[in-house]
């Protein structure tokens, strides 16, 4: 694609969740403190800021400290801190009286929305990114990118940018067994939970049966929510392991989420990185907060007292097949260790099966020939050939190289600053090029 005449932005961000919100704050901070300032626009397909809209359950708390907000770990005095949010909302003393480091998920979402409201002018909501394409200059050098989006009204918009930050989150993981059923409203991923469950009319089915597939935090939260939401329904948690496991959030293990541990992981050879990630996998995957496990166990115990069994844990289960029927979803399950195959019918099935994050994201496919096999640098920038000048930063796609913290909120404050400093350096380089070669700006657009 050849450049069009419109002047490019310095930075365009695709996605405006917590990661790129933190980036926007870091860019604003650098614009106040450093020169040159960077122009920016973020595009977000949702019609407004919301974080995990369908998992904002009324009884769910955060699993990390409020201090690991958008800014505090790098700038405790920032006006974008969670503490300042509480102060502005008039709840600081009341929050202190809770004697907890962990706000509810609903409150943390409100904090993020409060921060995002400061960037209304710099974010275009209701725009879905369609493609990111290189603009090749007459000398064969790519100095800018064209980002094509579709607005809420169906119109297509093209913006040019020198640099880009991609932070679009993970794609819901739907196991192959369920892939052909994903369009049926009776089977849905946890990412759509609240809206999907509200449309099923299960409150009108006193004997409804619901399966929750998974053994992690989301599965446990959904099982508890269903148990309270539908007092006469039976809820089965189906999972492959022998039992539910607690997340390891003890102090020494939690140090793996410190910024210096990212440096350690990145400095290791590939095989050692895999070993480190496997060693600490029980901090984040298929594990549940200890308090939540306690609540589950208490419900199960009270069921034994009352002779009731509405909530059932079904471990060592493999779902071998699934099919749709007029009366629900039928699943063929096998108990590991040689159990026989049985068929179960459910009125609804919730897949709490996590997310997939592939650094070879479809939006980046047009850039592939200019990149070094999608390798990521320490500053979260995709390594590129010398004739490709745009800096393309990715957030949430670098667990293999940067460690388990990459997909979590823990690194937002530090990672966003690292990316912002890279973007400032990039603009300085462009200005230096323009000063030494006046014809460069004409080629760059």
UniProtKB/TrEMBL annotation:
State the pathway, as annotated in the record. Siderophore biosynthesis
Q: Which UniProt keywords apply?
A: FAD, Flavoprotein, NADP, Oxidoreductase
Q: Name one GO molecular function term.
A: oxidoreductase activity
GO BP, one annotated term: intracellular iron ion homeostasis
Query: What are the required cofactors?
Result: FAD
Which SUPFAM superfamilies does the UniProt record give? FAD/NAD(P)-binding domain
Top-level taxon of the source organism = Bacteria
Query: What family classification does the UniProt entry report for this protein?
Result: Belongs to the lysine N(6)-hydroxylase/L-ornithine N(5)-oxygenase family.
State the protein's name.
Answer: L-ornithine N(5)-monooxygenase
What species does this protein belong to?
A: Hansschlegelia plantiphila
Q: What is this organism's lineage?
A: Bacteria, Pseudomonadati, Pseudomonadota, Alphaproteobacteria, Hyphomicrobiales
Gene name, per UniProt, is pvdA
